[in-house]
Amino acid sequence: MIALLVAGAFALAFTLLLMPAYIRLVHRLGWGQPIRVDGPTTHQIKRGTPTMGGLVFVLGAVGGYFLGHAIAPGTPVTASGLLVILMMVGTGAVGFLDDFTKTRRQQSLGLTGWQKVGGQVIVATVFAVLALMFRDSDSGLTPATAAISAIRDVHWLDLMRLGPVLGVALYLIWINLLTVSVSNAVNVTDGLDGLATGATILALSAYIFIGFFQFKQACHNVGAARGCFTVRDPLDLTIVSVALAGSLVGFLWWNASPARVFMGDTGSLGIGGTLGALAILTHTELLLIVIGGLYCIETGSVIIQRAYFKVTHGRRIFRMSPIHHHFELKGWEQVTITIRFWILAGLFMVIGVGLFYFGWLSS
């Protein structure tokens, strides 16, 4: 418990207190946010707002994680926790390259779409391979399994049943698909001041509950009790979740409307990769669709808009996608959209946690 409190408190204080100095530094370096020409005209006043704030909250989360372990030596650093950190930093680094390219060129396009996906695939592949290694000496568990999971592993969806070669190949494809989808979905959602930040805090709250509940109901804690969880290092996954959530709360102070700093792709890809890693290592991969329901709506609106535009040769369903821009063009205030979308994210979080809990009750 001490590790959880220290990790969250340090990460929050680090981001909250360091951000003003970072904003001043970014102003001097000229790392201002370029704005899409084809976006809502009301966004043009945000041109030049400091970006890449994800650098600060990722550092805060990583620092909080390690400080929590340093102050509470009874909770050792684990392979699972380090894998989530790897995904957070790795996908964040891809986003940083994209942000840096944008600010250097002073245009809203940085890396090409395939370059970004390529970077994410490299990070996800390294993560996937390592997640099948590092078997725990006591429980014999590895951080991840090759089974697709919902509330726990679905045994008839164990990809290894197809043989080791095909099974590993499909497992790598699945982990890459999940990682790229989630990280880009968060990136799409990050279009209004504080929107993605608040939604992610709520999604992480679900994983704080899930990780801690799995720790309390772990098979090595409660024996072979009915419904116990065979998840490696659930407490450490909770510590990572608390550290990032605390860091994002500190960031939200500066990112709330009117935002003084944006997270950039550094932040959105980083936290998207983290959510994907948490889903994989807590064996709740399909449940992430519910917990991150707002991300699915945002991304789905883009897919529907583009498909409908092509099929109808120029007609549109929404005034602009992602869907938060549609409501902007209908006259909704940005703060109103953000708060209502936070409410939706909260509802999805509650439904996701409820499904997880009732899945445990019925197991």
UniProtKB/TrEMBL annotation:
Compartments where found: Cell membrane; Membrane
Alphabetical list of InterPro entries matching this protein: Glycosyl_transferase_4, PNAcMuramoyl-5peptid_Trfase, PNAcMuramoyl-5peptid_Trfase_CS
Cofactor: Mg(2+)
Keywords: Cell cycle, Cell division, Cell membrane, Cell shape, Cell wall biogenesis/degradation, Magnesium, Membrane, Metal-binding, Peptidoglycan synthesis, Transferase, Transmembrane, Transmembrane helix
Keyword check for Nucleus: no
Domain of life, per lineage: Bacteria
Pfam families per the UniProt record, alphabetical: Glycos_transf_4, MraY_sig1
Primary location: membrane
Membrane disposition: Multi-pass membrane protein
Binding site for Mg(2+): 187, 265
Pathway stated in the Swiss-Prot or TrEMBL entry: Cell wall biogenesis; peptidoglycan biosynthesis
Record field: transmembrane: 52-72, 79-97, 117-134, 155-175, 195-215, 235-254, 339-360
GO cellular component: plasma membrane
Enzymatic reactions: UDP-N-acetyl-alpha-D-muramoyl-L-alanyl-gamma-D-glutamyl-meso-2,6-diaminopimeloyl-D-alanyl-D-alanine + di-trans,octa-cis-undecaprenyl phosphate = di-trans,octa-cis-undecaprenyl diphospho-N-acetyl-alpha-D-muramoyl-L-alanyl-D-glutamyl-meso-2,6-diaminopimeloyl-D-alanyl-D-alanine + UMP
Purpose of the protein: Catalyzes the initial step of the lipid cycle reactions in the biosynthesis of the cell wall peptidoglycan: transfers peptidoglycan precursor phospho-MurNAc-pentapeptide from UDP-MurNAc-pentapeptide onto the lipid carrier undecaprenyl phosphate, yielding undecaprenyl-pyrophosphoryl-MurNAc-pentapeptide, known as lipid I.
PANTHER family for the chain: PHOSPHO-N-ACETYLMURAMOYL-PENTAPEPTIDE-TRANSFERASE, PHOSPHO-N-ACETYLMURAMOYL-PENTAPEPTIDE-TRANSFERASE HOMOLOG
Family: Belongs to the glycosyltransferase 4 family. MraY subfamily.
Classification via HAMAP family: MraY
The protein's name: Phospho-N-acetylmuramoyl-pentapeptide-transferase
Gene name for this UniProt entry: mraY
